[in-house]
Design goal:
- The chain contains eleven helices and 13 strands.
- The chain is an alpha/beta fold.
- The strands form four sheets. The protein has a seven-stranded parallel beta sheet, with helices on both faces. Strands 7-10 form a two-stranded parallel sheet. A two-stranded parallel sheet has the order 8-13.
- Helix 1 links the parallel strand 1 and strand 2.
- The radius of gyration is 19 Å and the shape is globular.
- The protein binds uridine-5'-diphosphate-4-deoxy-4-fluoro-alpha-D-galactose (UFG).
- The site of uridine-5'-diphosphate-4-deoxy-4-fluoro-alpha-D-galactose (UFG) has 21 residues, from helix 7 and strand 8.
C-alpha cells in the first residue's frame, strides 16, 4: 500500500462505513465514498472531515442502478480497492419486504463486481455477518462451521453475496476478503460519529441509549427464559472501531498480496458472549443511569446464543479486538448525549 492509494467505500456514510473511512484516511488512503443516504446522513461527511482533517470525495450513487455504478467506476478508474458496505440490514424489515432486500443487497453487489471486473480493480473487502451461521450447533463458531438455512431474507442476501463473490473470484482476477461481523456497537471516541438509526432502532444498544436519554419510555428485553445463565440471549458485541481497524488490515493484506487464497473469510468478534442483562448492567455502571427495562416475550427469529471463535482472524490478520463491553457502552452513551445536545441546541 502506498500513501494516496485510492479506495472506494460504498456505504461510507453508514455506521461501520464511516468509522472505517476515518481509519483509512488516518492511514493515508484517499477515500471515495459512494452512498445514497438511505440510512445515513450527509452530515457524517462533515464529521469525518472534522475528525481526520480531510474531506473524503463523495459520490451520490444508487448502486443497485447499473448505469450509475458504471459511471462511478469510470470516473474513478485508478481505484486500488473497494470496501463494499452498502446494504440494508434490518432483519424484521427484510421479512416484511424481501424484494427490497434482494434488489438492494444483491443488485448492488453484482453491479459493483461487474464494474470492478470491467475497470480491472482487483481487491474487494466485503461486509458479511454472523447471521450466515444461524444458530450453530457448536460454540464458539469458527469460519469452517457449515452455514445454516437463513432465518430471514436479510441473512439470505449475506449468504448469497458470499456465494456470488466466491464464484466470481474463481472465474476472474478478483481477490476478496469477507468479514463476518458479530454484533457491532459503540461509537468513535470523538463522539462525532456513531450509530444513527433514522427510525426506531432495531438493535439493542441504540435502544438502551435512547431509553436512557428519554427518547423511549422503556427497553423491552426480548425473552427471559432462554437456556442461558440469566435467561436472556447471548451475543458477541464488538466495538465498531475495532471492526473498522480490521477492515484496514484486510485491505492492506489484499493490496500487499499477502492473502493466502483468492477468497478469504474471517470472523470479527471479541470471542466473548454477553447476555442482554450483562449489556444493561454494563451500561448502567458506566453511565451512572438507571435503565427502565422490562423482560417481555421472545422476539421471533432470535438465536439463543452465538459468539465467535476469533483464532483465525487473530492469527492470520494479527488483529484482536481491544475494547471491552464497558468501553462499547460508554462510547455509545457519549454519542447519544452528543446527538441529544445537537437536537436540543437552538439554531
Ligand atoms: N434485544 C432486546 N431488546 C431490544 C433489541 C434487542 O432484548 O429492543 C435483544 C435481542 O433479542 C437479542 C440482542 O438484544 O438477544 C441483540 O439484538 P440486536 O437486534 O441488537 O442484534 P441481533 O443479534 O438480533 O442482530 C445482529 C445484527 C444483524 C445480524 C444478526 C446476526 O444486527 O444484522 O446480528 O445474528 F443479522
Amino acid at each position: 500500500m502506498k500513501k494516496g492509494d485510492k479506495v472506494l467505500v460504498t456505504g461510507g456514510t453508514g455506521y461501520i462505513g464511516s468509522h472505517t473511512v476515518v481509519e483509512l484516511q488516518q492511514k493515508g488512503f484517499d477515500v471515495i465514498i459512494a452512498d445514497n443516504f438511505s440510512n445515513s446522513s450527509e452530515s457524517v461527511i462533515d464529521s469525518i472531515e472534522k475528525i481526520t482533517g480531510k474531506r473524503p470525495v463523495f459520490e451520490f450513487t444508487e448502486l443497485c442502478e447499473r448505469e450509475q455504478t458504471q459511471s462511478l467506476f469510470k470516473k474513478h478508474k485508478d481505484l486500488k480497492a473497494v470496501i463494499h458496505f452498502a446494504a440494508f440490514k434490518a432483519v424484521g424489515e427484510s421479512v416484511e419486504n424481501p424484494l427490497l432486500y434482494y434488489k438492494n443487497n444483491i443488485f448492488s453487489l453484482v453491479n459493483v463486481l461487474e464494474a470492478m471486473k470491467e475497470i480491472e480493480i482487483p481487491n474487494l473487502v466485503f461486509s458479511s455477518s454472523c447471521t450466515v451461521y444461524g444458530q450453530p450447533d457448536k460454540l464458539p463458531v469458527d469460519e469452517n462451521t457449515p452455514l445454516q438455512k437463513s432465518s430471514s431474507p436479510y441473512g439470505e442476501t449475506k449468504q448469497m453475496s458470499e456465494k456470488i463473490i466466491s464464484d466470481t473470484v474463481k472465474a476472474t482476477f478478483l481477490n476478496s476478503i469477507s468479514l463476518r461481523y458479530f454484533n457491532p456497537t459503540g461509537a468513535h471516541d470523538s463522539a462525532m460519529i456513531g450509530e444513527l438509526p433514522i427510525e426506531k432502532p432495531n438493535n439493542l444498544v441504540p435502544f438502551i441509549t435512547q431509553t436512557a436519554v428519554g427518547k423511549r419510555d422503556e427497553l423491552q428485553v426480548f425473552g427471559g427464559d432462554y437456556n442461558t445463565p440469566d435467561g436472556t440471549c447471548i451475543r458477541d458485541y464488538i466495538h465498531v472501531v475495532d471492526l473498522a481497524k480490521a477492515h484496514l488490515i484486510a485491505l492492506e493484506r489484499l493490496m500487499d498480496n499477502k492473502n493466502k487464497s483468492k477468497n478469504e473469510i474471517f470472523n470479527l468478534g471479541t470471542g466473548i458472549g454477553y447476555s442482554v442483562l450483562d449489556t444493561i448492567h454494563s451500561f448502567e455502571r458506566v453511565s451512572g443511569e438507571k435503565l427502565n427495562y422490562k423482560i417481555v416475550q421472545r422476539r421471533p427469529g432470535d438465536v439463543e446464543k452465538i459468539y465467535a471463535d476469533t483464532t483465525y482472524a487473530n492469527k492470520e490478520l494479527n488483529w484482536k479486538a481491544e475494547r471491552d463491553l464497558d468501553n462499547m457502552m460508554l462510547t455509545a452513551w457519549k454519542w447519544e448525549l452528543a446527538l441529544n445536545q445537537k437536537t436540543n441546541t437552538p439554531a
